[in-house]
Model the fold of this input.
Amino acid sequence: MSSLRNAIPRRAHKERAQPEARKKFGILEKHKDYVLRAKAFHQKEEALRKLKEKAEFRNPDEFYFKMINTKTINGVHRPPSEANKYTQEELMLMKTRDMGYILQKIQSEKKKIERLTSVLHALDNQPLNKRVFYAEDREEAKDIRSKSLERSNSPVFRNMPNRIKKRSACSYAEVESRKQRVQQLEKLYSDMALQKELQKSGRKHKLREEELVSPTSRPVYKWRTERKR
Done:
């Protein structure tokens, strides 16, 4: 019976619009608009209640150092500036640690490249494994050489499955991408080493293009020689 009642089309009841005499007050608020407004109001009311309860149960002897370190500007707490938070020695130590991390990543990438190249069966279309044959005369040497060429040009090498070809191509692409990453890390390491040296004491100046012995796009600095006691 209920399914039959639902099958009968019913009239869609629509909410009325704003009367013509009240057009100046804007669009008439619908029930869904009231629900959203009521939810937002009750959320704010609950947040204020929790803050009021937290203020009532606050310990009057509570203290932490941000009470005296922060400043209130236009009613907003502003933390102190951290421009000179670290000394020059601490900055040098952090720079050294960063350089050590970059150097560790370079060594890790190089080891991964060596591992990948050792797994691959061929580099530049040449087999990695080699055999040494000893011949007693030239005729035997020519015979051994012809047999090795026939073995390398056999259909086994030419008719390689596509799955193995795709896998080897992906491995070669990964090797190339890791080599590029090593180059980027080495450039970053050299830049960080230069910045670390520039932070040290001593008079120095940047060389101009006409002063360079070998032109380069990277900046070159020269330190003034100082007598060591």
Notes: The two ends are 108 Å apart (CA to CA). The longest strand covers residues 71-73. The chain has seven helices and six strands. The longest helix spans residues 162-199.
